[in-house]
Write a structure and sequence with these properties.
The complex is a heterodimer of chains A (215) and B (951). Chain A is mainly alpha-helical and 215 residues long. Chain A has 8 helices and 3 strands; from the N terminus they run αββαααααααβ. Classes of the chains: A mainly alpha (215), B alpha+beta (951). The interface between A and B is medium-sized, with 30 and 33 residues.
């Protein structure tokens, strides 16, 4: 809002129109606007505590992430998935504030610095939770991990990893590590399934970049 | 914001639509999230390919300007400049461009490549394809014409065949038929279908030599630009010889090939062998060997030969003699039997019965479905087969024990998501309501009904979800239905593309949708059907422009392809009936004869672009030569069900043995379908009848009267009522027709009469497949000619012979040969027609053998009478010169069902066939009072062979 008002004032001072937003990418009939890419970069910088980077490369990376989100949103609509409400994101934001900005003034100052509002953070966190839940809903039921795969992972990855990090603590037997390994392998499979699906989805829809936004 | 503007000012969406979609108004605070959401919604309409929001100060306020660039959609797609094949339709399909979908340059480039590939497969190499784009801003359509410079079609060169034994290469080459006249005239030109047929023939070459595992693949079409020839490169693996053998039973080679699918599939994998085993088992069980078992084994006889041996244990032969159905209370036995395929032996129709394990299992599943779909979720069907029923060791008895269980009902029904204005209509479409039987199948039907309701009212995204939960009361459930109606869609406009010669007014009149109407699926399909019904379009594609776009008003596109306007037909046929006997007096009742027939016709459709059809049809046979001109205007003046027909013909016929007549006729008819099955026709006919005096086989004294040319001006009307289930082979319903006509001097005629012809037929199912069919035909004709004293007695001038009633034959009264009923000339015995007609046909139709052969027992009674006042039910002929009596014919017939209707053979016995005086001698002898009058009688036996039921 601050930026928009500033732009508007500048435009007024100059007496000519100023671009306040424009189409950056289209995913079929869904639009990703330039302002959304910039917000995405600002929120990421804020949450990760890094300086804001709005270079063409960073914009394109952010656009690709937003394309994936658009594809997921599209799939959610097709499978009539009911997303969670915004109240699910509030505890996450509170936790983030408690961990990173114990003082309210510092939090407000950081938001102003990154030209964000609290609502922007809430929306971003809600989106993350929604995507995580949908991915589990969509892909986890199809994932199966066999006992042989658990044993193979224990032999090839778990034991060597334990020995390199936690030695001389003895490696737990397979039975004790089984639940942990199953969770790891399931997570890997879900991620893999998600990646495969995203690749296929990207290939099957019409995605158009407005190149001037990324110059 | 003080104002919101759009650049350019002319937008594809109306101002109100824009305001509603964008959701921003002057006076609103500037908010980037709201602005972003507005642009997202605007883009989601699909109407734009680029958007940009600018802000500027103007007049003390901030003005938001939304700059837009229009999106384009695929409109008409055509490919020009190439000779067939491939035809226009195939090339347009090859583009894969979809009508109404968003246009993109990449897709047009890909489409051009697809066309190129298709053309290359058809022998056109080095083609230049130039897509010409025609942008129509008003409709946002891009019409794309791929202009092709194709050059000369390539010819085949000698194929390169790899992998085949050297001795077979020449044979394979011949098999392909790619040479012209075995190579005498070189090689044929390349066509896609010719290439694939050639390869297919090579495959069959091996299949017929028992090499079922052979592989014949076209790997490349190698083009030589210098010679413009194409060398097909074919890779062959002939594989081993497969021999399928059967042990333990006998079966013809043809039947074995039919039952073991390795032949059709040209593969011998285990699944196909198992399928062959199942087919053989079922076949032998159907033949009565209920305990038949079939096993198979494969054996590599040599590197060149694989043997597949099916071993059959036939076991004893059984016949299904008894079928018992027990435990059924909710459905009667008849209802259950209708769903069963197994059939006990009957004396004639099912001499072997029908029974196999697979058939029984299918019947059990079918009965279960019947119960489950009516709420009997716990039904149990237990079939039991007993051998040696009724003390006969070869008899089988099947008992189907049904345990129905409780019927589940709907205890509670909850419906949500329905807007108040739809609630009553939607609820009325549910059958799965409180108190009704519950089944998934019934809910699925309800879902279809409800969704159709929405689709037909412009809600294309309506969705239906439901779940069910058991209630505490036993066998009751609660159904919870959640509907998501989605947004309504309306018609923004309708565009028809592809019209070349057709009148646009005629086409748009046929459409059932107008701007502002809900986008109804039923109306779209109905419009498409009505366009096809015009008979002038070979193809009618319909699409919504911008299908994915979230806009309330949609543009509907119809893209038509006009059919070829000229069509030809040539027919050959023959008649075999009592049409022989020549033109002498020897056989007034005719003798068996044969008449070959040739017909030829040309029709021109879509005449003047109005969907009218003009046709010329000629027919030439020994007994008829006819030229008929027809002009047909369906949906005349755009009125549904109204048709105008103008006909003119010249006909020379001898279908009535008494005379040869020439008829020249013109007629205008208006036909209107009043309601479904009810049609009224009015027509005016003007004709000139000339009877060849030399052909008249009547008393010479009457020849001067009956050989005079006659003009007939006839105004007539017909009412038709069609209520039959199937006009070709009716099983129930009725059919009525009444035709009333007045021939008058006021219409330019030289003869005057009134005439009525009424027919009433009805069809009744008595039991099972036993059908009672009946037809009554009544005709009445009143002579209204002026009085004359020419014969010395004051009487009316006679009605000309060709205008009288004639009857008899395969489709009227089977006791007579064709047109042989009624009064006869007292000197020659030839029929002279009458002014009254009454024929009653009664027919019992029944199945005879299997499903295709049926029989009939019939009774025809009636005759052509001198006049209405001579109607009588008396069955005795009053005298050899009197013919006003009821002629009865009883008989039997057989019907063999074919795809074009039943072929029938009827044999009639006529106990009271008419006797009459005939004349033996020549015409001169008759005139000179010489020759001999002899008593004759129509044969008591008449046979008729024809196509279609009698009525």
């Amino acid at each position: 809002m601050t930026r928009l008002v500033a732009v508007a004032m500048l435009a007024a001072a100059l007496g000519r129109g100023e671009v306040v937003d424009r189409l950056a990418v289209s995913v079929e009939s869904a639009a990703i606007l330039e302002s959304e890419i910039l917000d995405h970069l600002r929120v990421a910088a804020f949450l990760e505590g890094k300086p804001l980077d709005v270079s063409p490369r960073a914009r394109r990376t952010a656009a690709n992430q937003l394309i994936e989100l658009a594809l997921i949103r599209r799939e959610m609509q097709l499978s009539r998935y009911t997303p969670p409400g915004v109240e699910i994101a509030k505890p996450l934001l509170d936790k983030f504030r408690a961990e990173h900005f114990p003082r309210a003034e510092a939090f407000e100052a950081a938001l102003t610095t990154h030209r964000l509002r609290e609502a922007d953070l809430l929306r971003n966190l809600l989106l993350q939770v929604t995507v995580t839940r949908f991915v589990n809903f969509r892909f986890r039921p199809g994932v199966r991990v066999s006992e042989e795969e658990v044993a193979e992972y224990y032999r090839d990855s778990y034991v060597p990893g334990w020995e390199s990090v936690k030695a001389p603590v003895p490696v737990p037997p397979l039975q004790e590590a089984q639940t942990e390994i199953e969770a790891i392998l399931t997570e890997q499979r879900v991620d893999q399934a998600m990646d495969d699906w995203l690749k296929a989805a990207r290939a099957s829809v019409r995605i158009t970049f407005q190149e001037e936004v990324f110059r | 914001m003080s104002a919101i503007r759009y650049e350019p000012a002319a937008q594809p969406l109306h101002a109100k639509e824009l305001e509603q979609i964008v959701g921003l108004r002057p006076g609103d605070a500037v908010d980037r999230i709201r602005l972003r959401e507005s642009l997202e919604r605007l883009y989601a309409t699909g109407r734009y390919r680029d958007l940009q929001a600018d802000m500027a100060e103007s007049g003390g306020g901030l003005v938001l300007t939304i700059q837009t660039q229009l999106a384009w959609f695929v409109g008409r797609v055509s490919v020009s400049g190439v000779s067939e094949p491939p035809n226009q339709g195939q090339l347009v399909s090859a583009t894969k461009l979809q009508l109404g979908h968003p246009y993109s340059q990449q897709e047009v480039r890909a489409a051009a490549e697809n066309v190129r590939a298709r053309l290359e497969r058809s022998g056109f190499y080095g083609t230049r394809i130039d897509p010409r784009l025609d942008f129509d801003e008003a409709t946002q359509q891009v019409h794309i014409d791929f202009q092709v410079s194709a050059g000369k079609r390539a010819e085949y060169a000698r194929p390169v065949i790899t992998g085949a034994p050297p001795g077979e290469v020449a044979a394979l080459e011949r098999t392909s038929r790619w040479k012209t006249f075995w190579g005498v005239l070189g090689w044929k030109d390349v066509r896609e279908s010719r290439t694939s047929r050639g390869v297919e023939r090579m495959r069959r070459y091996y299949a017929t030599r028992e090499r079922l595992l052979s592989n014949v693949d076209l790997t490349e079409l190698r083009h030589d630009p210098a010679r413009n020839t194409v060398t097909p490169v074919v890779a062959v693996e002939q594989g081993p010889r497969i021999r399928v053998k059967l042990a333990g039973a006998k079966l013809s080679d043809g039947k074995l090939r039919q039952l073991v699918p390795v032949y059709q599939e040209q593969s011998a994998d285990r699944d196909l062998l198992v399928e062959g085993m199942r087919n053989l088992t079922e076949y032998f069980q159907n033949e009565g060997h209920f305990r038949a078992k079939v096993e198979f084994d494969t054996r590599q006889v040599s590197a060149e030969e694989l043997e597949i041996l099916y071993t059959v244990e036939l076991g004893p032969k059984f016949l299904l003699t008894e079928l018992e159905i027990a435990g059924n209370q909710f459905f009667d036995r008849e209802t259950i039997r209708e769903r069963m395929g197994i059939t006990p032996v009957t004396k004639i129709r099912y001499r072997n019965g029908r029974f196999s394990e697979a058939l029984l299992n299918a019947d059990v599943a079918s009965i279960r479905d019947l119960y489950v779909s009516n709420g009997f979720r716990d039904v149990k069907i237990a079939p039991r087969v007993t051998e040696g029923a009724s003390g006969n060791s070869a008899a089988l008895r099947v008992r189907v024990e049904i345990t129905e269980g409780a019927q589940w009902t709907v205890g509670e029904f909850a419906l949500e998501g329905v807007a108040a204005e739809h609630l009553d209509e939607v609820r009325s479409r549910f059958s799965s309501m409180e108190g009704q039987a519950f089944s998934e199948a019934a809910v699925a039907l309800d879902r279809d009904q409800v969704l159709n309701y929405y689709y037909n009212r412009g809600y294309p995204e309506a969705q239906f979800d439901w779940d069910v939960e058991p209630l505490s009361e036993p066998h009751t459930v609660k159904i919870h239905v959640k509907l998501d109606e989605g947004e309504p869609r309306y018609v923004r406009g309708v565009l028809v593309g592809g019209l070349k010669t057709s009148n646009p007014g005629m086409v748009y009149e046929r459409l059932r949708l107008e701007p502002g109407d809900p986008l109804s699926q039923a109306a779209v399909i109905e419009s498409q059907r009505r366009l096809y019904d015009l008979g002038v379009f070979a193809r009618v594609d319909v699409a919504v422009q911008n299908p994915e776009g979230e806009e309330p008003n949609k543009l509907l596109l119809f893209q038509v392809e006009e059919a070829r306007r000229y069509s030809l037909n040539v027919g050959l046929g023959a008649e075999i009936a009592r049409i022989g006997g020549g033109s002498n007096f020897d056989a007034p009742a005719g003798s068996p004869g044969f008449s070959p027939r040739v017909s030829f016709g040309v029709s021109r459709s879509n005449f003047l672009g109005y969907g009218h059809t003009m046709a010329v049809q000629t027919r030439l046979s020994n007994i008829q030569q006819r030229t008929l001109l027809t002009y047909l205007a369906p949906q005349f003046k755009g009125v549904e069900g109204l048709a105008l027909t103008i006909t003119g013909f010249n006909d020379l016929s001898r279908d009535i043995r008494t005379f040869t007549s020439r008829r020249q006729e013109g007629a205008v008819q208006l036909s209107k379908e009043l309601s479904r099955g009810n049609t009224v026709q009015t027509r005016f006919t003007y004709r000139r009848n000339t009877v060849d005096a030399n052909s008249l086989n009547i008393d010479p004294d009457l020849i001067p009267v009956f050989s005079l040319p006659v003009r007939v001006g006839l105004l007539s009307g017909t009412f038709l009522q069609e209520r039959r289930d199937d006009p070709i082979e009716s099983r129930r319903g009725y059919y009525n027709s009444v035709d009333i006509g007045l021939a008058s001097g006021a219409f330019g005629g030289s003869t005057r009469y009134a005439r009525l012809l009424a027919r009433n037929s009805s069809y009744h199912r008595l039991y099972g497949d036993l059908i009672l069919a009946r037809l009554t035909t009544i005709g009445w004709q009143k002579n209204m000619n002026p009085l004359s004293t020419r014969t010395g007695v004051e009487e009316r001038e006679p009605i000309p012979l060709p205008e009288r009633f004639f009857s008899g034959g395969s489709s009227t009264h089977r006791g007579f040969p064709e047109n042989q009923a009624g009064p006869r000339d007292l000197a020659t015995g030839f029929p002279v027609g009458g002014a009254g007609l009454l024929v009653n046909n009664l027919e019992l139709r029944f199945p005879l053998l299997g499903d295709n052969l049926g029989g009939v027992a019939f009774h025809d009674m009636g005759n052509v009478f001198t006049s209405l006042s001579k109607f009588t039910l008396d069955w005795r002929q009053p005298g050899v010169t009197e013919f006003d009596y009821m002629v009865h014919a009883i008989g039997m017939g057989v019907r063999y069902r074919t795809p074009i209707g039943p072929v029938r053979l009827d044999l009639a016995y006529v106990p009271n066939a008419p006797s009459f005086f005939g004349f033996r001698g020549t015409r001169e002898q008759l005139i000179n009072g010489q020759g001999e009058f002899v008593m004759q009688r129509l044969s008591r036996f008449q046979f008729h062979f024809s196509l279609g039921q009698t009525f």
